[in-house]
Known about the structure:
The protein is an alpha+beta fold.
Amino acid sequence: MKYDVYIGLEVHLQLSTKTKAFCSCGTVFGEAPNSQTCPVCLGLPGALPVLNKEVLTSAIKVALALDCSIAERMKFDRKNYYYPDLPKNFQISQYDKPLSYDGHLDITIGGKEKRIGVKRVHIEEDAGKLFHKADYSLVDYNRTGTPLLEIVSEPDMSSPEEAYAYLATLKSVLKYLDVSDCNMEEGSLRCDANISLNRKGSGKLGTKTELKNMNSFKWVRSALEYEINRQSEILDDGGKITQETRLWNADKAVTISMRTKEEAHDYRYFPEPDLVPFSVSRELVDEVKRAIPELPKERMARFVSQYAIPAYDASVLTQEKKAADFFEEAVRIHSNPKGISNWIMGTLNAILNEKRLDIDRTKLLPANLALMVKMIDDGAISAKIGKEMLLEMVDTGESPDVLVEKKGLRQISDAGALEGIIDKIIKENERSVSDYKSGKKNALAHLVGQIMKDTKGRANPKTVNEILLKKLEG
Ligand SMILES: [Zn+2]
């Protein structure tokens, strides 16, 4: 490619506070339309907003987790525009004195770490929702005034893959902080992207377009891929990029022009007169800092050193807090970290993906997974039986020792018991035996397979191999 690519992301995060940003209305998703409203969030004359303290502390938490500096003095502004789901005709946001600035988030891309700058994290309020019917529209103000954080990155990403990694890493951090459900389908996590191209090595951003309406990380990646192609073709032909807002149309997999870009002065930002500028106390910042849990990056490093598992395992296990908690609890009960990690990342993840379940929504207890791995390690059951049992354990929450007894799945390691079965198989498979003796070593696998089939997978493979070889060679 002849161009350098610059991508910046704006993430809007809906905070899961019980009440709205500036009033005491509830924020439950899916309640009856307009049932969670009051004069403040409806913008009725004379109503005065009051900042929800939980919004402030959640915002500080996110800002600190992204290594942002907290502003000594902050203020709110009115961002003025008309929209039918915005009853006040302005949105309370932050303009020149936001909550925080100058942070960063480290992403891993192609095995290498890259630092992406975070320009600012600020507080604002959400608008309502419109429902367009055939010949009329309905408006629901339940979401009006719901607290949002806007997390603005620097244009430091240079490919759609980096943008995807940034979003995934950011979501992981936000979920650890437990300030939002991060549910994209319900709109708790939304993303806009800025993208520009410029001649390679110019060191300057080109004219950017803004992409909206991307409801999944995959869409963000596809929209950016499309936009890179579109812009580079225009530049190849000697054309100019128009600064504009474009929408992603997922059905047609194209971006389409929505409007030419508005500038900040179009919004006529001015200080919100009903909320005075204020200072965030050092004590509050320190208090919030102490409440920040161990974050995925630190936890990953700890997993590598404490449990001696590969960095790859540690990164997969720590991406979701509940999976990491599950792993640690299982390891506390049976100290085979690599064994337990293999089961979580392999068979268990495959089952969860198939059932579209999160690890904490199944009946499987960490203690039961630990016990199952221990039984395999002790040779009481085979790994194959383990695989079959795990599915049942996920569904029923049954403990592995009960399952093994109930179904007679205990591994046969007793040489005496196996010898009889092996003799029988040898007798029934003369052809394989003579093949083996004439040098076709892979005939052995067929015989082992027959023995496993006969015992329904319960034979200890190691013991079977030993006895079988002795009989064939002897
Ligand atoms: Zn309200």
